[in-house]
Amino acid sequence: MNLFADAIRWILAPAQWTGPYALPVLLGQHLLYTVLSLLVAAAIAVPAGWLIGHTGRGREVAVAISGAARAIPSFGLLILLVLLFGVLQVPVAALVTLVLLAIPSILAGAYTGIEAIDPRVVDAAKAVGMTPWQVFWKVEFPLGLPLLVGGLRAATLQVIATVTIAAWVNLGGLGFPIIQGIPLGRFDQVLAGALLVAALALIADLLFALAQRAVVPAGVRAAEGRSADEHRPGRVLRAART
After folding, report:
1. Cα–Cα distance measured from residue 186 to residue 193, given in angstroms and rounded to the nearest whole number
2. Is the torsion defined by CA of 145, 147, 152, 156 positive or negative?
C-alpha cells in the first residue's frame, strides 16, 4: 500500500509535469505513436478485410497470417526491426512494428463483420435491385461495423501496451518512467508508469466500448430488445399458460 501511495505521489509531484520528460509530453508521444500506427494499419487491413468478407476469397490466408502475426513477440520484433533499419531509423522501425501488430485484429474485425451477416439479408438486398456497391454500403458496412470497431478496440489495446516497451529504444512515451526506474531501483516510479499505461488503456477501452455500442444499427438493437423480451421468464410463463 505504501508503494502505491508513493507511486501516486510521484505522479503528482511538480517535477513530473515540467521539462522534456514531463508526463504530458510522454503522454503525447504515446498517443502519437498509437494513433499513427492504427491509422496506417487500418488503411491496410480494413479494405483487405472488407474484400475478403464480401467475396469470401482469401479467408484462409488471412487467418493464417493473423495467427502467425499474433504469435510474434512484440519486443523481439521491435528489436529485430531496429537492427534491420539501423539506429538512425528507430522511429520508422517502431512504427512498422506497431502496424504489423495492429493489422491482425483489425483485419479479423473487418472480414468477420461482413461474414457474420445473415446471407438472407444480403439476398433480400439484391432481390430489391441493389447494386453490389449499394449492398456493401447500405447493408454490409453498417451491420459489420460493430465487429470492425471491436477489432480496432483490440488493436488499440495491444498497440498501447507495445508502445510502452518502445521506450527501450529511446522513443519516449509512458514507458519511459518504467524503463528509467528499473535500473535505478525506483519502484515507485516503475509502478507510477505502469499505472499511467493501465489508465490510458482502460480509458481507450471504455471509449471503444461506447463506440462499439453506438454503431449498432437501431434496427438491430430493436430486434435484440424484442428477442430478449420474448425470452424473459414472465413472458415465457404467460405463453405456456395460453
Report:
1. 11
2. positive
